[in-house]
Structure formats: structure tokens, C-alpha cells
């Protein structure tokens, strides 16, 4: 029997399905993180990078590795904690378990303050805050889930346009006020991009192509 055959038989064994799901989650997290971060880092390096191309490429690969491994690790922690809770509660999953598992994963994996972690956490916080916006009954699309899930089809609802407008206005008004009056609290990456857009664009501009290349 080949190694591939053994692995397939192992993956089909009900006794190991839940444990292998942890590895599968880590794999998916790694691939997703690599795909998203590599493209983002590559574009940012081309548009705003300085220095030798070799150094830029090292930075791209370093950021990609950190993002990918971070998502892989948090998937391992999250799914492991969920599995432990499930086993401890007689095979039942409680609603609070996902919060605690996410809490542990966020603390252990993304608790270290660095550029990549900060971006991920801020993105997640923004997404979490956006969930508070009241929803309409307009269905964006139907997200099919496995039959073992609580619901075989989840309907994702679009934010209510009015409340989303208020949310967007408050969010952008707050960040712009902070940028102008309390810039020290702004995340560095966002501060740099906002400075280039809103402050460095002030005054006289040299429209010659050579000045654009130099910048």
C-alpha cells in the first residue's frame, strides 16, 4: 500500500476526522495568508518600495511567511480549543466556545505587536464592528455549507444602506479627526498612506514625469 493510500484511509477514519480537520484548517489558513499577503506586499513594494530589489523581495517573502504562518497557527489553536470544549461537554458545542477559542487564538498568535499582526487585528476588529450595523432582508448570496452544519444554506444579508451610511460616516469622521488631532494613535501603515494622500499633496506640485519617478 502506498503512502498516499494510507493517508487517504486515515483521512476517512471517523476516529481521526476531527483531528485532521485541524491540520486542514492550518493548511487553508497558510495558503490563504500566502495568497493575500504576497499579492499585497508585491504591489506595495512596486508602488512605494525603496532600496535594492533583492531587499524588497526578502521583505515580501518575510511578510508573506509571517502572515501565512500566523493564519495557520490561529487556525490550529482555534480548532483545537473548540475540539477540547466539545469533548469536555459530551460532544456538544456551546455558543460561547467560539468566543473563548478566538480569544485564546488571538492572544497566543496575534498578541505580539508587529506590523503584520496589527493589520490583521485591525482588519478583524473592523469586520467585527461592522457586524453591528443593522441588516436588511436583501440577500447577497447563498453560502452552501456541509450538511453536518447547523444549516445547509446560510443566507448572507446586505447591510441596511441607511445605517451603513451612518456607520461609514462615523468611522471615517473618527479616523480623519484622529489623523489630524491625535496622529500618534493611528496605525503606522495607515498613517503613512494618509500622510501621503492628505498632507504630502498640499502645496505646489511638480507635474513633470521625472519628479513622479523620483518620488
Keywords for this structure?
215 residues, mainly alpha, two-stranded antiparallel sheet, 69% helix, 8% strand, globular, disordered C terminus, Pmp4, Peroxisomal membrane protein 4
| Shape assignment | globular
Strand content: 5-15%
Order of adjacent strands in the largest pleated sheet: 1-2
Major beta sheet, specifics? 2 strands, antiparallel
What gyration radius follows from the Cα positions, in whole Å?
Answer: 22 Å
- DSSP, total strands: 2
Compressed to H and E, one letter per element, the order equals: HHHHHEEHHH
Which structural class matches the secondary elements? Answer: mainly alpha
Q: Please work out how many helical segments DSSP would assign.
A: 8
Helical content stands at: 55-70%
Termini separation (Å)? Answer: 61 Å
Mean pLDDT: 82
Spans of 5+ residues with little confidence (pLDDT < 50)? 209-215
Count of distinct structural domains: 2
What's the short version?
This is Peroxisomal membrane protein 4. By secondary structure, the protein is mainly α.
Structure description:
Pfam families: Tim17 (PF02466). InterPro entries: Pmp4. It comes from Neolentinus lepideus HHB14362 ss-1. This is Peroxisomal membrane protein 4. This protein is mainly alpha-helical and 215 residues long. It has 2 domains: 1-132, no CATH class; 134-202, no CATH class. Helices cover 69% and strands 8% of the residues. The chain has 8 helices and 2 strands. The chain has a two-stranded antiparallel sheet. The longest helix has 36 residues, at 53-88. It starts with a helix and ends with a helix. 10% of the residues are buried.
Amino acid at each position: 500500500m502506498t503512502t498516499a493510500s494510507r493517508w487517504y484511509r486515515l483521512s476517512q477514519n471517523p476516529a481521526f476526522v476531527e483531528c485532521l480537520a485541524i491540520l486542514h484548517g492550518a493548511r487553508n489558513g497558510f495558503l490563504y495568508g500566502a495568497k493575500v499577503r504576497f499579492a499585497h506586499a508585491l504591489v506595495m513594494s512596486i508602488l512605494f518600495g525603496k532600496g535594492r530589489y533583492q531587499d524588497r523581495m526578502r521583505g515580501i517573502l518575510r511578510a508573506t511567511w509571517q502572515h501565512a504562518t500566523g493564519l495557520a497557527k490561529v487556525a490550529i489553536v482555534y480548532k483545537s480549543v473548540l475540539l477540547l470544549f466539545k469533548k469536555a461537554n459530551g460532544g456538544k458545542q456551546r455558543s460561547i466556545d467560539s468566543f473563548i477559542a478566538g480569544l485564546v487564538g488571538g492572544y497566543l498568535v496575534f498578541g505580539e505587536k508587529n506590523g503584520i499582526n496589527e493589520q490583521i487585528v485591525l482588519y478583524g476588529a473592523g469586520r467585527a464592528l461592522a457586524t453591528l450595523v443593522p441588516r436588511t432582508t436583501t440577500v447577497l448570496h447563498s453560502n452552501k455549507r456541509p450538511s453536518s452544519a447547523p444549516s445547509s444554506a446560510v443566507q448572507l444579508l446586505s447591510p441596511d444602506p441607511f445605517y451603513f451610511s451612518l456607520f461609514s460616516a462615523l468611522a471615517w469622521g473618527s479616523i480623519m479627526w484622529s489623523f489630524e488631532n491625535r496622529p500618534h494613535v493611528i496605525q503606522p501603515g495607515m498613517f503613512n498612506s494618509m500622510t501621503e494622500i492628505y498632507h504630502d499633496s498640499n502645496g505646489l506640485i511638480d507635474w513633470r514625469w521625472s519628479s513622479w519617478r523620483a518620488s
